[in-house]
Amino acid sequence: DLGPPPVERAVPATLRVATWNVHFGKDTDGIAANIAASPVLSTADVILMQEIEAYPEEAGTRASRIAAQLGMTWFYAPARVEWNGTHGIAILSRFPLETPLVKQLPYIDQAWNSRERNAQAVEVVLGEARVRIVNIHLDLRIGVVDRIRQLSPAVVELDGPALLGGDFNSNPYAWLDSAVPLAGTEAVVGADQAVVLDDYFAEQDFRGAIPTTTATMRIPV
Known about the structure:
This protein is α+β, with helices and mostly antiparallel strands. Helices cover 19% and strands 33% of the residues. The chain contains four helices and ten strands. The protein starts with 16 loop residues before the first strand and ends in an 18-residue tail after the last helix.
């Protein structure tokens, strides 16, 4: 689901990109209003969204409805069927999008709620320039080896400069049978997945936008 080109605007000196897991994105009006009211999110030229859905009885995909309220275009990529609709990821942009691509990521069987995962890539058109943006949503209850295995198809086959973002679900635990998080003395030393992922991305010539120690899910766990 690729939206029409947005209203033409001047190319910025700096492209600002944000990412937000919207947890199904049901309240499209509320999400759009919060983005518009935020002194940070309202300045984003591109917004990556995870856990956003689409249903045939609704007037367009939730990604398209949020984008329309913000004056943006969109690219929605369903990862799996959810009830009578779909669940997936989306890229919203204030600039035209070209060459959309969806890639299925490796399926990892878990104790419960095993999920199909995907990645999407698209070129943001900035005048004569093109910037490839990749959006990913990974499983939660997996170790860092499986996490890298799941995301690597979206990373290693990129051709040329790219920006990679999304919900990597990295956490400071080793997992027993994809069910029980092992912390403290029970966990493997050096199991903090964010650190390992940053090392992996550095090997692929990516540079992180935020410090490894920054918590991006602000709840007391």
